[in-house]
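Write out the 3D structure for:
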Amino acid sequence: MRVFNFAPGPATLPAPVLEQARDELLDWRGSGMSVMEVSHRSKPFIAAAEEAEALLRELLSVPANYKVLFLQGGATGQFAAIPLNLAAADSTVDYLNTGAWSKKAIGEAKRLVARVNVVADEASSGYTTVPEAAALKLTAGAAYVHYTPNETIGGVEFPYVPATGAVPLVADMSSTILSRPIEVSKFGLIYAGAQKNIGPSGLTVVIVRDDLIGKARSGIPSVWDYKAMADEGSMLNTPATFAWYFAGLVFRWMKAQGGLTAIGERNRAKAQLLYAAIDGSGFYSNPVAVTARSWMNVPFTLRDPALDKTFLAEAQAAGLTNLAGHRSAGGMRASIYNAMPPEGVAALVAFMQEFQRRHG
């Protein structure tokens, strides 16, 4: 039986895509081989890779002056690759700190850049807020500004895109990419681990403006050099072929769903349903400021923490899995990415209401 999987990543995947991958697993496109056995240099795989890129460009309306790279190393690898490609060792870079993943990116940047300015720090709120747009004190002439539009652990999301003028804006969109339409031209670079809204773990997408590549530091490993990877079609080394293939299937599924406008409307409705159930209960609570609530990751606590284990056990028995909050936060967390159907959120809400009736 398929459960409703609320894991933060690796996350639930679209059932029709899993079924297609299953049906093609032993014989991909009549080759008599699995896609996992096909050379990444073969014409059929190159065609599949190019189709995946074209679909991603179409979904996000990526301008022609941006490269799309399919890399490895996760978003964590990009914490280092970004300063190594976009900033000299003696540069100044700006970072917004809104939670665990921002902090990790800042820590890596401090190893590689002389001046890392944390221009907004939401630690005082327990990372339950984002800075006001007008309060940002950005550094003139910084090499770039980095922020995390959605913090997976804390369930905090920016309701706006920071205005950085001529300074390139860099965004870790691992938890929010493809969840709604965005204007790519507002960003110098977007990066995202695949394991939330794109496909299996092992693949990282980087969308980078042309004028920002070709400036990597001397001595940078070639697999982290955006120009080197772009010149080789992301195949300087053997790529994560299965994850890339699977991402292409997901992109095709998204297009069939009506594209990002339709997906965004569905995601908004799912989040509203769950937050309404939390806010109206008197039994559950969400710690995040209403204006900064994530559509993708919804943390919540029970009025009596002693019931946490019971809640999780009963939810598991009801086919609602991976609802435990991050080990650093406790409580519960429901990740409701693109592939989580509205029926899954409705089932969670119904369970929460019944649990409250019996234990409240």
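The first strand starts at residue 4 and ends at 5.
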